[in-house]
Specification:
This protein is 83% helix and 0% strand. The protein has 121 residues and is mainly α.
C-alpha cells in the first residue's frame, strides 16, 4: 500500500510539473518522466524552452525552478522507496531466519523423541 502511494505521489508530481510548464507554453512531448528531465542540463532545458517559444527570461527561470523543485521532491520520494525496499529485504531475511529456526527446533525435538523411543525398547 505504501509503495503504491509513493508511486502515485511521483506521478502527481510529474503531472503537476507538466501542467505548470504548459501554462508557460512548454509541452513535454516525448518526455514521459522526471527521470528523463533530470538527465537534461539546465542549458539543454533552456534550449528546449526556447525551441517551444518560451523566450521570456523570467518565464524560463520560473520553469527551471519548477523543474528543480519537482526533481527535489522526486529524489525524496525515491529515497522513501529505497527505504521501503531495504525494510522489505530485512523482513524477508528475518522471516527466513524464523523459518530456519523453527525447522531446526522441530528437527531437534523429533530427534530427541526418536532417541527416547529407542531407549525404552
Amino acid at each position: 500500500m505504501r509503495r503504491s502511494q509513493l508511486k502515485n505521489d511521483q506521478h502527481q508530481v510529474f503531472a503537476k510539473l507538466e501542467n505548470e510548464l504548459k501554462s508557460y507554453g512548454f509541452r513535454l512531448g516525448d518526455i514521459h518522466s522526471l527521470m528523463s528531465l533530470s538527465r537534461l542540463t539546465p542549458t539543454a532545458f533552456l534550449a528546449l524552452l526556447q525551441s517551444q517559444s518560451v523566450v521570456d527570461e523570467t518565464d524560463q527561470l520560473i520553469c527551471l525552478q519548477r523543474l528543480d523543485d519537482a526533481l527535489d521532491v522526486m529524489k525524496s520520494l525515491d529515497g522513501h522507496l529505497d527505504l521501503l525496499d531495504d525494510i522489505e529485504v530485512y523482513l524477508e531475511d528475518w522471516l527466513w531466519c524464523l523459518i530456519y529456526q523453527s525447522a531446526q527446533q522441530d528437527w531437534g525435538e523429533k530427534r530427541v523423541l526418536s532417541g527416547r523411543d529407542h531407549r525404552a525398547i
